[in-house]
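Troubleshooting log. The previous structure file for this entry was overwritten by mistake, so regenerating from the original sequence record. Sequence copied from the archived sheet and checked twice against the printout by T.R.
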Amino acid sequence: MECRLNDSDVDCTDGLVAYDVRQGDRRGTDLDFFDYTYDGSVVAGGARLVGGLGQLTDGDHGPTNIRQHDAAAGAGRRGYEWVGWKRPDDDDHTVDHVEIVFRFDAERNFTAATFHASNAFSRDVRVFRAAAFRFERRGGGAVTSLPVEFEF
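Regenerated output below.
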């Protein structure tokens, strides 16, 4: 995640206290796209990450080739620099999206959000089809504006 305000770098973690997300998935036998550095709770049998921070906000970017890796990083795990999710199998249409909830210490005014995604189509890795950003006030009171949506 990269944060920018008026063309100057800003600390991405400014006020960010946690994010909640489904744990990343395994791909084949040699690639694990798990959030290994997450410091919050791992619940639901390891399927959900809640109340912490990890690789999604550490400022590090994975190499373009998802199979390339720094042998010293992540104890030699391939894919360590990435967190990724599979599309559901044809038999399992229960989850067709990934929801990431970012929690801040106070109300924030966002001017931009940047997400890095791999799109190695020849390796059956694709960028997300669409994204929707919704904003809520602390305590769950929804802001009445429409969500910000992006389609690739």
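The radius of gyration is 16 Å. Archived copy saved in two places this time.
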